[in-house]
Amino acid sequence: MNKAAASVAGGLSKGALGLIWPTDVLTLRGLAALYIVLAVLVSTPLWASSYIITIATLVLYTALLGQSWNLMLGFAGLLSIGHALFVGIGSYTAGYLFSKLGIPPILGVFPAIAIAVLVGSVIGYLGFRFSVGGVYFALLTIAFAEFTRIMADHADFLGGTEGMFLLVSQADRQGVDLIRLRGHPVMFFYVILGLAVGTLALCRALLKSKLGYYWQAIRDDQDAAEALGINVFRYKMFAVMISSALAGVGGVFYAFYNNNLFPESTFSIERSIELTLAPIVGGVGTLFGPIVGAFILTPLAEFITWLIGFLKSAGVIDPKLKLNGLKLLIWGFAVVLIVMFRPRGIWPWFRDLLGLRRAPDDHRRSP
Amino acid sequence: MSAIYRGATYCFRSGDTAWNCANAASSGALTGLVYGLSALGLSVIFGVIRIVNFAHGEIMVLGMYFALVMFNWLGIDPLLSVPAAALLMFGFGYGLQAAVISRVAHLPDHMQFLLLAALAIMLVSGCLLVFGPDPQSANVSYALDSFAVGKLFIDKTKVYAAIAAMLVAAILLAFFKYTATGKAIRACADNRLGAKVVGLNVDRLYALTFGIGAACLGAAGCIILPLIELRPYLAPSYTLLAFVIVIIGGLGSLPGALLGGILIGLSEDLAALWEPSYKTAFSFALLIFVLLLRPQGLLGRARH
To answer: Which CATH number is B231's domain given?
Structure first.
């Protein structure tokens, strides 16, 4: 445990430097691209409309959750289709502490993480001890998420199906209060930008640490990893715990950004599936995949909405036509096309196309 | 489902616990047979192609809408739409496997999951686009009738649905047991490489299997229609229900799917006696226990 922690700490210090100047992974062109994107993001509130800021916030939130999910599947080979459970636990814990007990999220985030990690550990412990693997593990995560959703429906102290609401005043919307996480949308944008960049740094550090190599060994061949003396159970548990902690943090952000929580919209399987799309489309097991996927899918959905509206106003489509579902239909089709024609994900294809990444010069698996 | 609730409260008022339980049990077992048929569709596909069909409920909802359209336009009883729906869905499933899913067969599990989840999103939104979000139902003439045995009241719709489900399931089991194609498909499931070696056209058999699985769903959709109110967003809950059933019964085991269906039907209706809104929580709790204590399911073979 101490050894692993020390290794992560070592990776983190290397990762901090490596994140600023990751020449071992990216070419100069890639570095330039990374910094241009970062600069554009940091300066977004200077040039963008409030609509763009909302979308950008959503993109970064999706990227954060994608990063958390990718840590389990992409790094350690554990498929979770119940990840909304951890997000929802984060949301509900911090939301409850704030709205009922007045504890601000800056403190509430710790119990939120603790409970998410606890539930993650229970699922992981049961799954790995009883060797529930592969598809069955995925179904176990769904079962826990659904079970929790139904329980939350009946939990009166959490508002049940009526929902839980976090009060927000007009003054709150204009100010900047990081302790209570109340403020202007621009504040939320910078908070999620900080969280997303921090998660990226953490994931890179983890991937470069001993822990990351253990995970990749387990992912690629569990039996071989076990034969080499890697404690498979322990490191898989770490993967679930870290992943659920990150998802919990995302959940806290969601609660205070949205100010309302319903079991149906928080824990449902649709949420869990949505959350997996960005990292899979971007590229599972890569560091930038979840981010690239989020930057493609979220704006794509907005673009389709805009396009339908535009075609209606241009008279190409009858404006009176009800087109519920058309957006998701097109969006789903786009995802099918990506799976069929870019099965490794968009990012691995894109970075090779533009030469953003250094060709791996040794047999080490670079992310 | 509100019918069950009304039934349950009525039974409690009449105050005879044994009869209440008998009523709930019979209703649950009959509904469970239909659930079992739908789960058969999932089990067949997983058992042979090793793909978890995340678009399960969505394909079933397609079958339901087909039966609804036939009922509303031509007045055909949903149960009589079964052959046509099965044929239509067979074609749909065959085409889907041959044209789309076979291309991702070599990809890791999560890509197949994503493909089917995306297809599921497309199917639900397609239904939403065409039929709208409002609940619709096929009110058959015998909807309110029931058979009475003592204080036991059994809805006619449920009895007919269960008979139809058993018939379709029997045809399916006979197909796999006695026909050459059925045996060939079982050979594929047992040993894909061996099946190829002896000259079976595995790709075509896979497409046939997906077609058969989808046909099951089409049939189950028609059969269940008179018991429910149909909305596009019903689909994910049927997907989850089928997952629960096949895992309890044993993923890939056909009798297991039927047994699991009956068990879940029973647990839903008996739980509804106590508190209707907890009935799915019961199913998921059952699922978690089975996954932990007997991950291969009640009638499944141990995995390697």
So the answer is: 1.10.3470
